[in-house]
């Protein structure tokens, strides 16, 4: 089994577990980013309070709206990303080794090369998986979108009425979301938000650059203290992943808000302030009508969700990699033992 396949499988497994743990936070954050009612936007509700409101008004299941396509998406996304990341990384390492032999380098992959490797992997990932995330966003925001079809009425909805409305809302599945997106914009609708998402490729690039830099420094310190033993623990990987994701999220969060706005159900009638023709149109209208602060709405929730998810992903991925390598090594050893016992 190739290193690329092993990394892809480990990344997919880690991504699924991380998504299951952090998904309610992701749902709340998507709703925060796509909230367009100015009165609701000015209210300061904590993440936990908002989660409780969703549960009270719509039920527990709404916190997991779109979970099925999300798990498919995260497994596909992480699998694709880590698969191509390992392929490009191996090529970069081979190039670095070649330069070392030629006397023009130290044999290690530089920061710029690491950024290019992560960016290429991220671009392929985005182009292949964007339709899945459009469907996920629709399912995460569906109930709110349905209550906002008549803005003049939504402001006067009481809690009891909201609960009743949620109860009367027909089941909204993957097929409904797919049909809705197609009816709005055809096949191209499944690539809504792809421009800011492609720019956001810098997020995992920054994340992995920070992660690998910190990991390399930690291993160097560990090796110097432990006479060549540079092993790191799962808890250390957890914290390194958290720090790396925190840095990347702080830089790229505004683009995440724009992406969510574009992928959510568009306002087709009435208030044209919330109908976006594209990325630039969305940015200009958000600045004009909602202010720069809107680009950081829900950021605290996103930081908690993304840092938690990234930390769990890195920790699980590294443990899965160790397990897969042990299994492969054991199988190879078993084959060698069997072969050595066969008559010549």
UniProtKB/TrEMBL annotation:
Subcellular localization: Membrane
Gene Ontology cellular-component terms listed: membrane
Entry-linked PROSITE patterns: SOLCAR
Keywords noted in UniProt: Membrane, Repeat, Transmembrane, Transmembrane helix, Transport
InterPro entries per the UniProt record, alphabetical: MCP_dom_sf (IPR023395), MCP_transmembrane (IPR018108), SLC25A32-like (IPR044712)
Solcar repeats: 2-91, 109-217, 232-323
Membrane topology: Multi-pass membrane protein
Transmembrane regions listed in the UniProt entry: 70-88, 109-128, 232-253
GO biological process: nucleotide transport; transmembrane transport
Assigned protein family: Belongs to the mitochondrial carrier (TC 2.A.29) family.
Protein name, per record: Peroxisomal nicotinamide adenine dinucleotide carrier
Biological source species: Protea cynaroides
